Amino acid sequence: MEGIRDKVVVITGASSGLGEATVRRLAREGARLVLGARRIDRLQALADELSLGRQSALQTDVTSFEEVTRLVDHAVTLYGRIDVMLNNAGLMPHSPLERCKVDDWDRTIDVNLKGVLYGIGAALPHMKAQMGGHVINVSSVAGHKVGPGGAVYAATKHAVRVISEGLRQEVKPYNIRTTIISPGAVATELPDSVTETDVAQNVRALYERVAIPADSFARAVVFAMSQPEDVDINEILFRPTAQEY
Fold this sequence. Notes:
The protein is of the alpha/beta class. It has helices spanning 17-28, 40-49, 65-79, 102-130, 151-170, 197-210, 215-225; strands at residues 8-12, 32-37, 57-59, 84-87, 133-138, 176-183, 235-238. Helix 2 links the parallel strand 2 (32-37) and strand 3.
């Protein structure tokens, strides 16, 4: 794909799901990848399978600004620059607000919202210095609409879109592009993050019925990345054809 080969791409949440699918596709297209995730064993296994080198995998908890900064700085140390920051790590512990799942609320905000901010904060100084780059943030269909049980998750995903639009306007002087990708039901481990048994059953039933492969997300990433430098794809919203919500 035009514009993919040799680009330095940092991906959070890279050990499974959307992140793993994107790693596989970008590796085939010749990108230089630096991968972050909490599960270092899975991350290193993926790096080994794709012959990326163990130096491309770094254990990273996106709720720590220090760890996200270390990941981005590691990419710049390895390759001299960062071309794309894909803030992908996320979770989705749906539950009705009346159940007051405070721990789930805190984790959702810390990963889905603060994790994106930390990725932006870590990458932006390097992209400003090199006068170019591309920040890709993962929102969701839930970033466009909310359903019962999904209020906190939807709030974080709406916030990702708001932050991304603010970022888009702020980075114009530095030739930095920004993209929001909002997937619907895609076959990943995301339903496993639902801690309420009855809610989890409903979510899994939906995913079993309509979810599409994670490579659908990876193709959206490639589409945004492969545009000419004067084309800024700001938002992609996609669903399974069979998904109503």
